[in-house]
């Protein structure tokens, strides 16, 4: 976008309220024709909205989000393949599955974290299928990393008190300063999920508790 276009977008967003938190400044509109629901990106998980991080970067509200078509499983098998905790007895926004083996089930939060750690090696944790599985996860709003798997390097994915150690938000609101970081809460420091060279406090970039990753403006 040109500078003038960006300013126009910001002005328009300032007039729209988020249907999830009801605050103004919602810049994302559902891509479904005829739907005028708008929301903030950090609010998307709380509203069960899906953003596809590829191609045209389309976003959908909860009503028009893509749905998985998987076979139901017996109740005794409803275990997350990743964390081994219980999942719902049917696929939903929070419970997802592998389209290849039709067997693996996992929490959205678990598969999102695995995707960021696995990077280019991301595949089904059960049957190890890669291409159809990856395409399905992208369609369902899972964000992938283009880095090698984290276990092949010394870099950590997600919040970290190592490597880059300060907040790069345009305005840092932390009373302790940009280099202050806590293990949890508003002053938890997150690194960019793509480059890990920039960081932000949760509060400084309005990242809610349901946010799984953050990407800097450069990336």
Automatic annotation (TrEMBL):
PROSITE patterns: EPHD, ZF_RING_2. InterPro entries: EPHD, PHD-type_Zinc_Finger, PHD_PHF7/G2E3-like, Znf_FYVE_PHD, Znf_PHD, Znf_RING, Znf_RING/FYVE/PHD. GO terms for cellular component: nucleus. The lineage of its organism: Eukaryota, Metazoa, Chordata, Craniata, Vertebrata. Residues 1-65 form the PHD-type domain. Residues 80-127 form the RING-type domain. One of its GO terms (molecular function) is ligase activity. It comes from Cettia cetti. This is G2E3 ligase. PANTHER family: PHD FINGER PROTEIN (PTHR12420), PHD FINGER PROTEIN 7 (PTHR12420:SF47). The gene is G2e3_1. SUPFAM superfamilies: FYVE/PHD zinc finger. The keyword Aminoacyl-tRNA synthetase does not apply. Keywords: Ligase, Metal-binding, Zinc, Zinc-finger.
